[in-house]
Amino acid sequence: MSHQIELRELRLFRGVAEHGSFSLCAEHCGISQPALSRTIKLMEDRLGVRLFDRDTRTVALSSYGRHLLPIAERVLREVEAGLDSLDQLASGARGRIVVASLPSLSATVLPRAISAFRETAPDVEFELIDALSGDIAEAVIQGRADLGLALRPIKDDLFNYEEIGLDRFGLVCREDDPMAVGPRVSWRDFEMRPFIAMASNSSVRLMTDAAFVQVRSPVKPLYECSQMATVGALVLNGLGVSALPRLAMPLTAASGLVWRSLSQPSLKRSVGIITRRNQAVSPTLASFISTVIRHSDAVLGRCKAHLSQADGAGDAG
């Protein structure tokens, strides 16, 4: 048997049980006593049981009413808690944000942005996913991530993309390497040195390969690495040199390395925020996106200043 009971009816049933009186409950709930009595009678008719034993003086729960009361209280408690949570989510006070990000942005832009955001929204939870650009776009389009920090998507008709900066590629070598000082370095300068590359499925590798093709250089990697920390360790141990974006340098975790801007060609990649087109953006997510944009300036601004200095002086980065 299907029983159609409304939340309003459960609240009134609970009210009569708590007050032990139809008149007191009606006064507390702001309705007339006849209307309250009709509501309870309709509930009893639909359920097929009597919920209250009542006479001219007293109102008490029947055995059926005593069975229903904890159920009604649990249902109302869960509904009220859920609606309160929804209100907090809508106001931006609570929520959960899933961010899929390039490791270089996870290590530089995200920590600053999250730290600043939590000062005003400490109850918002975060899940961070480090991934390659293609996987980030897939996570966003499938709804597994609320936003991505990645390269500009190829299929930009599926996404909204807001650029937060340009990340330039540069030579990575040891501090005592001859290439660490002197004239500007170009992509052809890698021809006489062992080259350490990222894995073939990474966006960094695709861009470095394209640069070598553009200058018709026969550079082939001697080592291929899936992690930038491994690239840094190999370079630091004198096994070769590499080319990485400026923002990737914190991931190399090596203090004895130098980054120098590369020219001929000057290779840059656009990095930014991607969301699904026509995605419903909550106030919480919108506020966090604004925070990311604001605090990315601190990181990318330093990179830009460094690049300008390197372009002008040709010194080690």
Average pLDDT score: 86
- For CATH, the homologous superfamily of the largest domain is named as Periplasmic binding protein-like II
* Name of the level-1 CATH class of the largest domain: Alpha Beta
At the third CATH level, what is the topology name of the largest domain? D-Maltodextrin-Binding Protein, domain 2
Number of helices: 11
Helix content class: 40-55%
Low-confidence stretches at least 5 residues in length (pLDDT < 50)? 303-317
Domain count: the total is: 3
The helix-strand sequence is: HHHEEHEHHEHEEEEHEHEHEEH
Gap from first CA to last CA: 76 Å
Biggest sheet details: 8 strands, mixed
CATH architecture of the largest domain: 3-Layer(aba) Sandwich
Radius of gyration: 32 Å
Q: Please tell me what the overall shape is.
A: rod-shaped
Output the structural class.
alpha/beta
Task: Walk me through what this model shows.
It is a single chain. By secondary structure, the protein is an alpha/beta fold. It folds into 3 domains: 5-73, Orthogonal Bundle (Arc Repressor Mutant, subunit A), CATH 1.10.10; 76-162 and 269-301, D-Maltodextrin-Binding Protein, domain 2 (3-Layer(aba) Sandwich); 166-267, D-Maltodextrin-Binding Protein, domain 2. It is built from 11 helices and 12 strands. Strands 3, 4, 5, 6, 7, 10, 11 and 12 form an 8-stranded mixed sheet that branches. It has a two-stranded antiparallel ribbon with strand order 1-2. It has a two-stranded parallel sheet with strand order 8-9. The longest helix is centred in the C-terminal third of the chain and has 31 residues, at 283-313. InterPro entries: HTH-type_LysR_regulators (IPR050950), LysR_HTH_N (IPR000847), LysR_subst-bd (IPR005119), WH-like_DNA-bd_sf (IPR036388), WH_DNA-bd_sf (IPR036390). Pfam families: HTH_1 (PF00126), LysR_substrate (PF03466). Belongs to the LysR transcriptional regulatory family.
